[in-house]
Backbone:
């Protein structure tokens, strides 16, 4: 292998003729190879033959600006794979996702995206579709989890908060659904659908 990398030539097994290899080798790792070389866990001669033009990609937690781009990429990709037509991610949900540390990097983000799309029942991903641990660790919503009831799911609690926001906004807009939907940044069809899910008892207290 070292000869192929260094000299670009090799001899086939059982052959007696030297052949040239026109190749380019691209390798990647998430380990600290320099440390492994120092500890004798990785061959030093192989390391220096491969270490020609390094491209260092920092972990996802250090490049938050890439998170929205990756979310959009996986949304489009998974929509095609899963036969879904989810339009996007709510601003609040996206804030939480951007500020998460992503210890599992892009693989974790992709898996979380797939999980959210499985749970999503509307045309955009809401906070209630996010994994609970993401919401709990978010620095943006300490009050949300501080007030989380001991009994009952996160989804139910978030739904209560959403219902309250919908009704208050609707009242503020003089019960004009178009204005209320615009104020919340929702499509009118989405806004009407959400309203239809609110229990009648809450309408009387709005």
Residues:
């Amino acid at each position: 292998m070292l000869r192929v990398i260094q000299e670009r030539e090799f001899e086939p097994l059982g052959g007696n003729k030297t052949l040239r290899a026109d190749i380019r080798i691209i390798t990647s790792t998430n380990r600290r190879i320099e440390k492994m070389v120092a500890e004798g866990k990785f061959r030093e001669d192989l390391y220096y033959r491969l270490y020609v033009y390094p491209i260092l990609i920092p972990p996802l937690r250090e490049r938050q600006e890439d998170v929205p781009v990756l979310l959009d990429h996986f949304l489009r990709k998974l929509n095609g794979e899963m036969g879904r037509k989810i339009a996007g991610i709510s601003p609040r949900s996206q804030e939480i996702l951007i500020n998460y540390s992503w210890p599992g990097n892009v693989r974790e983000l992709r898996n979380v995206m797939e999980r959210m799309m499985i749970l999503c029942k509307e045309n955009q991903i809401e906070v209630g579709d996010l994994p609970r641990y993401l919401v709990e660790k978010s620095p943006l919503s300490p009050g949300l989890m501080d007030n989380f009831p001991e009994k009952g799911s996160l989804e139910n609690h978030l739904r209560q908060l959403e219902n309250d926001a919908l009704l208050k906004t609707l009242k503020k807009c003089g019960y004009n659904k178009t204005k209320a939907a615009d104020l919340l940044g929702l499509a009118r069809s989405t806004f009407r659908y959400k309203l239809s899910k609110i229990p009648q008892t809450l309408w009387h207290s709005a």
